[in-house]
Amino acid sequence: TTDAENISQWCLLNHMAANITKTKVMLITTWQKRLSLPEHLRTLKVKMNGEYLENVITDKLLGVFINNNLSWECHIDSVVRRVNGKLALLRRIKGCLPLVSRKMFSNAHILPHIDYCSTVWGSSAQSLYLAQKRVARAILDVKGKAIRAPENRTRTLLSKLGWLKVQDRVNFRKSIMVYKSVNNLSPQYMSDMFKTCAPKQSGKMCTRSADKGDLVL
Predict the structure, then answer these.
(1) 170: which of 60, 98, 122, 127 fits an S-S bond (Cβ 3.0–4.6 Å)?
(2) Strands 58-61 vs 64-67: parallel, antiparallel or unpaired
């Protein structure tokens, strides 16, 4: 409550208004730890401007759904729904579009939903992978259900489109983020998350060359 009031005072001094109805409280922890907490601690009582803020278990922040377990199922479900909505539109208009235009439509209106903030929530969600396969089959006009497609056939479809699998896309974007962080191409607070450690040694043998350090997050 003290921190909330400090935020309210800061807003007042900077001629800003904190919207109490849009300000929420969430206790983020694992469900196992939450069960071990006393009942009166499972609901946070935070007051701002004389009013208690609403406790929530899921809320949307900058387009990403966050829940109190940080499990990301809610956000992944939301991404799948958005992808399916765009896919339904693609299926209605694909008969009027050549292949190159279908790819352009998907690159502009479907893949951004999959990639947005994926370095934060990215996981190997099967539902999202199946949605990606349905999109690929619609673009290439391949009949059948995505869930029954053999893995090698799916890799062939994605290869024709120049796409990576969902999890590979996430890993690729994470790799870019790490590269930028360790090469001072990102904000300083991200670079500060990494440090270079001396190579580990076992007896007289060095497991890595002396001029190479290990990056540790």
Answers:
(1) 122
(2) antiparallel
**pLDDT per position in the chain (217 positions), as tens?**
678 888 888 888 898 888 888 888 988 888 888 888 887 777 888 888 888 888 898 999 889 999 988 888 899 999 999 999 999 999 999 989 999 999 999 999 999 999 999 988 887 688 999 999 999 999 998 876 655 656 778 888 899 999 999 989 999 999 999 889 888 888 888 888 887 776 665 555 443 433 444 443 3
Quickly count: other Cβ atoms within 10 Å of residue 113's Cβ: 19
Q: For 61, list phi and psi in degrees, rounded to 5.
A: -130, 115
Cα(7)–Cα(19) distance, integer angstroms: 12
User: Can you name the residues that pair with 25 across neighbouring β-strands?
Assistant: 55
For every residue of 5-28, DSSP letters joined together read: HHHHHHHHHTT----GGG-EE---
Q: Which two three-digit tokens encode residue 15?
A: 């001629």
Q: What is the pTM of this model?
A: 0.76
Rounded distance between C-alpha atoms, residue 149 and residue 136, angstroms: 12
